[in-house]
């Protein structure tokens, strides 16, 4: 895997769109897919080892556990250990449903923001 480069930095989702636009987007998503949760997954800003995911927006079923969601993300980047932080600072029990995690940690705009990082983030 190539080392982290400045050119690989991207603007966080919240900074790309204003609050009103993000709220409208969530409203549209929830009306089209009432049984799915809008989740944004982004790489930790100081992450040096993990690559960017191909996409950042996910529609996740309420019943899916946080552990199953982690497995889904791991399958996208199977070669590295992956740690997930909710709203940039919280961790959740792997057996909690995404519906529970969403209701507890969703942002005021309606998205659930999850940051992924490697172990070095904690050290």
From TrEMBL:
Residues covalently joined to lipid (Phosphatidylserine amidated glycine): 123
GO cellular component terms given for this protein: autophagosome; cytoplasmic vesicle; endomembrane system
One biological process term in Gene Ontology: response to stress
Transmembrane segments: none
Pfam short name (any one): ATG8
Main location: cytoplasm
Location within or outside the cell: Cytoplasmic vesicle, Autophagosome; Endomembrane system
Membrane topology of the entry: Lipid-anchor
Entry keywords, A to Z: Autophagy, Cytoplasm, Cytoplasmic vesicle, Lipoprotein, Membrane
Keyword Cytoplasm recorded: yes
Taxonomic superkingdom: Eukaryota
PANTHER family cross-referenced by the UniProt entry: MICROTUBULE-ASSOCIATED PROTEINS 1A/1B LIGHT CHAIN 3-RELATED
Family, per entry: Belongs to the ATG8 family.
Name of this chain's protein: Microtubule-associated proteins 1A/1B light chain 3C-like
Gene: map1lc3cl
